[in-house]
Specification:
It is built from eleven helices and six strands. By secondary structure, it is of the alpha+beta class. β1 and β2 form a beta hairpin. The longest helix is centred in the first third of the chain and has 20 residues.
């Protein structure tokens, strides 16, 4: 029994808090749907033929698509939202020793449900992708800071660019505690000169040969992955110089240490965290300053995924 309990705990720890929350929300919507159509607490559809289960899951998918359990909206929910909700409900069935209600006897997703989801995909509007930014945008925001805070945001965005970082890796994001990926701390940034690791208090950070960043935990479940970037001859867009400036600035704040997050900045004599929204807004401002038409990028197409 102890082994079974340990296995259960390990399984729970194997997914992020956001996954648990999404699964719980999906199951709550499913049970609410069952109650609304008269399925009297037989949520696992015990004793029903497989075809009946497939029909019920298909009808539930329609209810999700039409937003019956969401905030009022004129637009139907996207196919991926419907599919993820159905998958979460099916996972709960399997975890409780029941057969998957959205698969047929051959273990394939039911044919009618497949067609239903395919129809949703065809009718969904095209997903709006954020556009990658040219180097000139970073040069501009680095060269024209209006305040210490904007300078800090610009350096952080430009430094993150060299590693194509996720926003949660370098800035404060909503529901961070629910995410698998953790924000970088100063201890994750290592400078190397002539084969030797430099202390962050060293005066030789700026001329270091390279800077290595260790990502302790990522969304793709890779752990302690280290990625290195070498210094460049560019006086502004150099990963070594950018991170040297960020590290030195943060260590000058009262109470900071190697475990301090890289998003810290000073504003109105207070230490605050740079948010992903601040980063996105500064990038948008940079695009507007250069010219949306000139760049072929509209402000609305810019965000933290543009890095």
């Amino acid at each position: 029994m102890a082994d079974l309990a340990a296995a259960s705990v390990a399984a729970e720890e194997g997914v992020g808090g956001g996954t648990h929350e999404n699964d719980t929300r999906a199951w709550a919507r499913y049970t609410q749907y069952c109650d609304s159509v008269g399925i009297d607490r037989n949520y696992f559809l015990d004793g029903m033929p497989r075809q009946h289960k497939l029909a019920i899951i298909g009808a539930f998918a329609v209810a999700i698509r039409e937003g019956q359990f969401s905030r009022q909206s004129d637009a139907p929910l996207a196919k991926n939202t419907v599919s993820n909700t159905v998958n979460a409900v099916a996972a709960t069935f399997r975890e409780n020793g029941r057969e998957d209600p959205h698969r047929d006897a051959e273990r394939h997703v039911g044919r009618l449900l497949q067609r239903q989801l395919r129809s949703y995909s065809r009718n969904d509007p095209k997903e709006k992708q954020q556009k990658a930014l040219p180097i000139c945008v970073y040069r501009l925001i680095l060269a024209s800071p209006a305040s210490e805070l904007r300078r800090s945001i610009a350096e952080l965005a430009a430094a993150a660019h060299f590693w194509a970082m996720r926003s949660c890796e370098y800035s404060k994001v909503s529901r961070a505690e629910k995410r698998q990926t953790k924000q970088l701390c100063l201890r994750n940034i290592v400078f190397i000169k002539d084969g030797n690791t430099l202390e962050h208090t060293s005066t030789r950070l700026n001329p270091a040969d390279c800077v290595s960043i260790t990502f302790e935990r990522q969304k793709n479940e890779r752990k302690y992955e280290t990625v290195t970037q070498w210094r460049t001859s560019d006086p502004i867009m150099c990963p070594v110089k950018l991170w040297a400036s960020i590290i030195s600035r943060i260590l000058s704040f009262k109470g900071t240490n190697q475990n301090s997050p890289v998003s810290l900045a000073q504003h109105n004599n207070k230490t605050i965290s740079i948010t992903s929204e601040m980063v996105a807004n500064l990038l948008k401002d940079g695009v507007v300053a250069i010219g949306e038409t000139k760049l072929g990028i509209h402000r609305s197409e810019v965000g933290t995924h543009s890095i």
